[in-house]
Fold:
Amino acid sequence: YSSREWAETLDAFAELGGEQVWQRGPPFLRVSAVEDLAANPQFAWCFMNGNNITGPSCFDEAAARIAARGATLGAWIVYSYQEAYSPSAVLPCLSAGLDIHIKTSREFFVALLNRNATAADACDIAPGDVVDVLVSAYAGVDSKALLMAEAAKRGMGVVLGMPGIPGDPSAPWSPDPGLMPSYLLWCARVFADWAKRYGSSPAFVGTYQVSEASLSVGSPATLVAAYAAINTVWRAQFGATKAFVLSPYVDVNVAQVGRDATVAVHVANFELVARESGADLIAVQEGRGCAKAAYFWPFQSNDTIGSSDPALLDVVTYLDPSTSPNATFAERFVASTRQLFEAFALSLAALRSATGAPGPLLWSNNEAFEYTRSAPCLPVDLEGNAMQELLDRTSKYRIDWGIGQHGAFVSGFTTFAWDADYTCVPEGFSLSLADEIAADLKRPIVTQATLQLAANGSATLAVLGFQLTSAASYRVLFPSAASPSSESGLFVAAASSFDPRYGADHGLSPRLGCGVVLIPAAVVETFGPGALEVYAAADATDDWVAFQPTWVMLEQ
Structure:
């Protein structure tokens, strides 16, 4: 991205309420052979004599420097992120004759990373040490630096992507124990570079780890240990001034993980991440976009998926063609996203109470895509900051639905991914998702309601939600006591009071408000058994019933 492109993107994002941009870091990637590295066009001009290809390559020189010290060359590593590093930060061993810095048609950074060293003695290589060689190239435009500058102008935050944890070749979702020492050395150098270049920028607010832990069956312990090790390096550089951000994912899809992926299992793994990783913020991936979880209420468990979420049924069927069109939520999912997030919030509150420490914030990472490919979004970002797969975009209706499902339990939301899920206009759509949101930006979204009966038979309905200042009235559909088989009754009223600081005062999203509706005793006595459907309507002409309600179960 150029400065102009970042400016346009950030302005469009801010108009929708966007406050921070999170970036995904590239992998710390092992290359099978140096010949593959030398054949990569990005590194083809990495020669010690500049563009003179008759001279030794940087690869040959690095290998020679390791051999001259009696050490063993471990692995060749590629790190491609196009950052204009400060050589003194990422190549601290230049003066010791170890690291290599070359400027030709590109700027090359060659770091010799001793697996047996720490950041304090990184320039000491002794006989018998194992040294990995990392190569990174810069072609002249640092998009991250441009983003930081433009974000600072707008009072927005940037969470930079730290290096991705190297995967074990025999178990790709687990860290590679052999590479972790050199990986941590490289992290220390990258963090030192960020401190030097961005440390005084108000836009630089934290870092995000792209290697994501599963909260489902199995234990994320090895990945959590890696998080903790990185966090130690991060705190050594920044202390508590910048956030350390993780985004683990849920999976309660029976076809993928079986019925052992219970809420309790997810909570136990979430608590491990919260206790041991050192994270300041955990943005749990909701799983709805890729059908790892679903939006439904407990009393809807035996409803067919297609009856309320036909787009999800399409995803489930795409991933498992044997799926029956009449499959129910209970048949395909162990729990709903709402049940999971409520449980995470409760466990985090218990952890804070037990330790006396604030612990990490809980956010929801809402997936702005459908895992189908009927009209996918382009472009695909191969570097991984944005969408790496050809997937269909979703609708504002579903984004609002997700906010309503999780909004009563979280401190904030992030969403994946702006480019291209929010910006593309694929076949069958007349607007991008961003434009669709902008056209309906002030719609009130309800997320939770509680009913409290008074001694005189009246009731107080407290409704939590977002943008409730736009709610002209609340609509309550209720089962009729007189005619249980008939259509629901309808009660309409404006809020008697509104608390715009409810979220801020309760450790939740500062955008979460609470509207209070008074229901007369004459209406309450007509309630039958079942559930109240609570909607918020923007005005008298609003098609409020076309949007998702929140529910209140009534006493039998």
